[in-house]
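note to self — DONT lose this again. spent like an hour looking for the file last time. sequence + predicted structure for the chain T wanted, 661 res
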Amino acid sequence: ATITTVGYGDVAPSSLYEVGFAIACIVVAVVVYTLVIANLEDIVANLDVTSTLYALKREKVKQWCLRSSLPGKLSTQVADYYDKLWAQQKGVKGTAVLAMLPENLRSRVALELCGDALRSIPCCRGRALEDLALKLRLDLYAPGSYLFRAGECAARLFVVAAGGVALEDDDGAVLHTIERGLVGEAEFLLRRIHEVACISTDYAQIFDLSYGDLMAVLRFHKKWDEFRAYCVAHENTISGKSVGDGRGIRATDFHVRSAEKRRSRDASGSCVAHPASRFKRLWVVACLGLSLYSLVSAPFGVGFARRYSRTTCAMDAILFVFFSIDLGLNLAVFAVKRQGKVILERKVFRDLYVRTDFVYDLVSLLPLSLIVALSTPDVFAKKAYDPTIHALRLVQALRARRLPAYVDGAAAYLEERWQLNLSGDMTYLILLCASVLLMCHWLACALAYLGRYELWRAKASDQFAFWSLGNSKHDRAWRWYADEGLGCREYGREKRKHAANVWVCEAYPPNPALRIADASMYDRWLVAFYWAVYTCSTVGFGGVSLNSNAEKLLACLGMVLGAVVCDAGIAAVLTAVVEHKDHQHGTNRRRRECGRRMMAAARVPMEARMRVAAYFDYVDDDLHNLDDATVLDELNVALRRGILRHAAHAKLCDSLVHGGL
């Protein structure tokens, strides 16, 4: 208690030497404990600095999506893109990775990946080919991302380096699949309109080249005129070139290979639920609520001798039915997201679930308490109490390993339903605080169980009298007293002193005339929970006296867990949140101050200064320091087009119609 700075004060020094030693221990404990907690905070907060910075970037992008009122599907695609980019490349785009290399090595890498495809472009040989490779942009494309749509101008040439894409008609039927090579070559070289759509079928690494970059490279090498002349002279040949595999047909001449629809259906044709679907999120919220109920009620019944009532039996039956359905849904319906990739194929996510969570969910689902309860006669009688039934309910605690996923799903649902912007740090803080409260509840139940055990052992050894103030077995289990007025006259002083060592025989704080054992079940829980909270929070009021060895060991466990989880974990998360807020506030303040000083030195009119200050207020308060151009530049071509199409397509069409174009 001294080392962890809890300070129960149950062991008091009596001599001057003991007082001096206690002072020295307190000083050393404060220094050592502070160093330990500081290092733990540093470990927790800096497990991966890169992931922390990337999480902040994701939070900014999420806020930008909310502010821009993007539809849920498009926002989900943006979030999936960032998740997969982190899982596959630690959040660094392929173009940024190539930019870290020198030009000669960058061109060699690009040519190694797509050199054969680039050599099919007319007039691109030698140094011109190497310079063209330097102009390529490498991006990651998620499944379902459109590289281009039918009717769009072929302003970019795409080269599939890894993954796969498919060409679709207006009805969504797959015309052709491409694993590697050029996409849209004929339309790009001849400056035509795409007649089909191209969509990625898997996570794909795709290079893209703009027509402006091609023109700049050919002009620099003085081959532009030759290129244009070649395209005009061989227009029919280019029009018949293959998009992907070298066979001389255009995209519109591909034979229909499959008429099955994409998305939302796997190979067997059965529907699956996307992780971002509303049904999945609502189901996760229900799983969170029922899991918390089981994690709270099961130890409570064991620790406080709660009778197994019909209500408890009905709730156990509901839990069994609900999580049985959940088990089936995880095996057949619920798609999963692993390493940023959404797995929609039933066989794949079923095998993944079987390898990871199936065994734990199956064990936690076993209805052992229901079987024992229904096979026990008079289990619902008022005098009946069977600790075995509540002990068997503890297998439901295995669902605790799913709580982080449930909390994330519930946070996503709250954001979607009520537009609550919960950052990653805030979600983690909520999960950590809930874990602390749950840990305190379990410690309180363990303390209550130890008190009951000590009373039972004392009765078995006949060390003090047993007195019942009630008729039920439950009441008799808690009516242990060492008071002379309650049946202990035949025992000596030492035996009565031993009886008072049990914590439930202490005076009940709201009413000292009663023992804690006399209080109701929920009042006893409140006393035990109060002890657990001040122990885990390292406050150490010492309001509940612990005397037995088992109780002291439990208190030591609570101190250690509280030091790690409360002092280190919560403090580290709060420190990260405050530092981020302070850093952003400092950046805004410096920007305002620099602007004010510059305008004062340049003698800018006061009206202009006020407009600049109003602009800074707008950027800080309304835009939350988000720059549209920066966010869009982080995304690939498909997502940028989707966002711009959502934001401006309808307005541009209206302007063209009203303008007579």
